[in-house]
Amino acid sequence: MPTTRRYLMCEPRFFAVDYVINPWMDPTKPVSADVAVAQWTELRDTYRRLGHTVEEIDPQPGLPDMVFAANSGTVVDGRVLGSRFRAPQRTAEAEHFRRWFVEHGYRDITMPAKVNEAEGDFAWTGRLLLAGTGFRTDPAAHAEAQEVLGVPVVSLSLVDPRYYHLDTALFVLTEATDAGPAQIAYYPEAFSAGSRRVLARLFPDAVIATAADAECFGLNGVSDGRNVVLPLEATELAARLAARGYDPVHVDISELRKAGGGPKCCTLEIRK
């Protein structure tokens, strides 16, 4: 069943690919901020059509990746754990998002001591926090998240540099409730052998994605428990989700993908 969500997003007004911090970025290829804004706007409006609340933070010049709001905070039960970026090009983003939370009445805010790229590497399942490491978030940040947010954390190791964040290889379809367990979708080859065994044990009924779906950022999806927002190209994953009773909703994120981002990267969920 769908549940109403609250999201924080940032318009890509200053979108560009001026540097390389992941394998998807190529400054020699043309990029259009206007196209990025149009795609982002359609994503935002899609959420609103589905009944969700979308709030916006003002973009800042010189921070072209600020559109990827998911990397800037993790919010569970109203507690906010901010971010600490590994790449110096993104460091300043963390303070802008911290101020947004302060200005909107949040008082339980912690800025991490360890490198922590927020929902890029943290996925809340309703019962526990899946936490990725390997390329961006420091393994020690997992223990810090458990202490700050007060929720159990399960560490997962990423091994393919194309899937440098957990949210490029896994997303939560349905959060766990008293009525049933959480459901996820993921791409096994992005994870270490041990992490694959952990995921298979925790989520035996998970939806498994193909290599083609992973490569188009199909695992960078956003689900409200029924409606699943996916890139246009994630056709096989959409079919598998539909067979499970979910409603795939396709969006074009081709321009945003040039910087290594998709629907989830643009979407920070605020859980009160």
UniProtKB/TrEMBL annotation:
Iron keyword on record: no
Biological process terms in GO annotation: arginine metabolic process; citrulline metabolic process; positive regulation of nitric oxide biosynthetic process
Q: Does the keyword Hydrolase apply?
A: yes
The entry's keywords = Hydrolase
**Catalytic residues?**
165, 265
Provide any one GO MF term from the record.
Answer: dimethylargininase activity
Protein family according to the UniProt entry: Belongs to the DDAH family.
State the name under which the record lists this protein: N-Dimethylarginine dimethylaminohydrolase
Q: Which organism is it from?
A: Amycolatopsis saalfeldensis
